[in-house]
Write a structure and sequence with these properties.
Blueprint: H1 3-20, H2 32-42, H3 47-60, H4 64-69, H5 72-79, H6 86-102, H7 110-113, H8 121-132, H9 141-151, H10 160-171, H11 179-192, H12 212-215, E1 232-242, E2 247-251, E3 262-263, E4 266-268, H13 273-283, E5 287-299, E6 303-314, E7 329-331, H14 333-339, H15 347-350
Helix pairs in contact: 1-11, 2-3, 2-8, 8-11, 9-11
Amino acid sequence: METMKLETLVEPLLGWYNASHRILPWREHITPYRVWISEIMLQQTRVEAVKPYYERFLQALPDIGKLAAVSEEELLKLWEGLGYYNRARNLKKAAILIEEKYGGQMPKTYAELLTLPGIGSYTAGAIASIAFGEPVPAVDGNVLRILARVLADDSDIKEPKTRRRMEGLLAAVMPDGQAGAFNQAMMELGAVICIPNGEPKCVLCPWREYCRARAEDAVSSYPKKSPKKARGIEEKTVLLLQDENRTALHRRPFQGLLAGMYEFPTLAGHRSEEEVLAYLKELGYKAVRIRRLEDAVHIFTHKEWHMIGYAVRVDELERPQADEESGLLFVETEEAEKRYPIPSAFAAYAKYLRLRLGNEKYR
């Protein structure tokens, strides 16, 4: 793991990257804002999934001022389908802070970037190096994986001390004037060659002659990481509650999972038809008919929703004086598609309404 070992890897990596890197929208016309938005979107999301979101986001919110001023509902609608919605909220919080503290200009140093909401060491390193040329590393899971393999390092990559040590090793070999290219080359290597799942493409790797894991025929043994905790399972009953032309939505609490998003009315547990009808009667709705829908599962990072569903037609003439009393909002499908951010967790039930979520509405 000596510094000299890593120094020998810099030149072949940059040569490979300059000759064969992918053309991606955020690599064209580089600005601090564009780098920032792309890096936040790419956290825990595949490149191909991000591309259309990135283009639409920049069209709607082309600069920090527009991002700071956007309503949360519009922001979440732009983000609909990308998941991890606090990423979007933190973008807005950071934009407001940049407007107030930095006159609307992205701070230029790694240390200042770290003070912004939603920006950790990796994202700060990526922005500082790519947009401003600061010689700082950008170490994420991809980078930790390729370093663990090339060095045959058996440290647990989930441990903060492992990340800090790897950041130190890379900082010592950061090439003069090419910090941004070097960090992007590391990201690229982990994305297309030294991949996390499946067989790494070692024959195409610029580090194939140097890689200790390959020499030991043990590439699949790295990186070492402590096992994930088992996800908790929550049972849910989802209701497609409709009157003649509209469907009910409910806004989730402003704290916690999917905060502030809109959902179809959802009950804890798996409920029988009789329980659903009794619940609606309590709210003041008269059910005309009810039918069972398919079961669905949605997986979050730390939990799974196991859902059953019902489509329920209610009598529009017999309902509460104001739907606000029940916490429900009845909207037409077209309006829901354009205005209300609905998480992809409900995609299995949205299809019954021909309600398209996220990228689906642009296909």
